[in-house]
Design a protein that fits this description.
By secondary structure, this protein is an all-alpha fold. The protein has one helix spanning 30-56.
């Protein structure tokens, strides 16, 4: 598996990282793989919603 790195942005800032399953690695029938993509999509949506809610109150 290749090494993964967060992108680098010059200047001051906070670096944050959150891992999600790679849905492209899903195996099985088309419907099973599609279910993994949808689940990961939903996890990303929830995580981003929580992140925005936390940072908008700061």
């Amino acid at each position: 598996m290749p090494t993964r790195h967060c992108p680098c942005f010059p200047g001051a800032g906070e670096r944050l990282h959150h891992s999600f399953e790679d849905p492209a690695a899903a195996v099985g029938a088309t419907e099973a793989r599609l279910a993994v993509f949808r689940r990961v999509r939903d996890e990303i949506d929830i995580w981003l919603g929580e992140f925005v809610a936390q940072t908008s109150h700061a």
